[in-house]
Amino acid sequence: MKAMILSAGYGKRLRPLTDHTPKPLVPVGGKPLVVHHLEKLADAGFREIVINLGHLGSRIPEALGDGSAWGLEIAYSDEGPEPLETGGGITKALPLLGNDTFLVVNGDVWCDLDFAKIPDDLPGEDDALLFLVPRPAWREKGDFSLLDGRVVESESPDLLYAGIALYHPRILDGAKVEKFSIVPRLRW
């Protein structure tokens, strides 16, 4: 299975750190955040990684190269100076991701999830499997609620999307390479 690390955003909430450094290259625990992801993905058996580029994007391949330092093959999907958001960014990268289920990890999340425990495929005809966490007290509203293990609409969602998901490419059927969020397709 391939994995994609979303890395094209501006990192506005981390300014001034991200004025000159792309958010995934901001150091956490002595190394860039994206390196933590690459190490975990390599340890879990992933070999092919796609990283999308946007804000200060040229600095990411300069820092990571082809991925051989982690036993990985990194391909880059350059969105140009205007990031395409999640839906547009993944749509642009689909030719690099192929026709099978793939993992997406937001490049700006920190987690202790063991990527080796992520399923290799989606159940049945599902288009996505989202990793959700309980809504923290500081957050007014969550993103989703669950009923019998399925995402449902709710007036008071109690779970947050953790920035990690499995997707089948068909979730983007009919999508164009343009700026859009994948969230409406997830809700659907």
Structure description:
- The model has no long low-confidence stretch (mean pLDDT 91).
- 34% of the residues are buried.
- The protein is an alpha/beta fold and 188 residues long.
- Helices cover 19% and strands 26% of the residues.
- The protein contains four helices and ten strands; from the N terminus they run βββαβαβαβββββα.
- The strands form three sheets. It has a six-stranded mixed beta sheet. The chain has a two-stranded antiparallel ribbon with strand order 2-3. A two-stranded antiparallel ribbon has the order 8-9.
Measured as a percent range, the helix fraction is 10-25%
C-alpha-based Rg, rounded: 16 Å
Overall mean confidence score, pLDDT: 91
N→C terminal distance: 25 Å
The oligomeric state is single chain
Order of helices and strands: EEEHEHEHEEEEEH
Largest sheet: 6 strands, mixed
Read across the widest sheet, the strand sequence of neighbours is 5-4-1-6-10-7
What class would the helix/strand composition place it in?
alpha/beta
* Topology, number of strands: 10
Form type: globular
What is the tally of helical segments? Answer: 4
Low-confidence stretches: none
Entry summary:
The protein is of the alpha/beta class and 188 residues long. The protein has helices spanning 33-43, 59-64, 85-97, 183-187; strands at 2-6, 27-28, 31-32, 48-53, 73-78, 102-106, 128-134, 145-147, 150-152, 159-167.
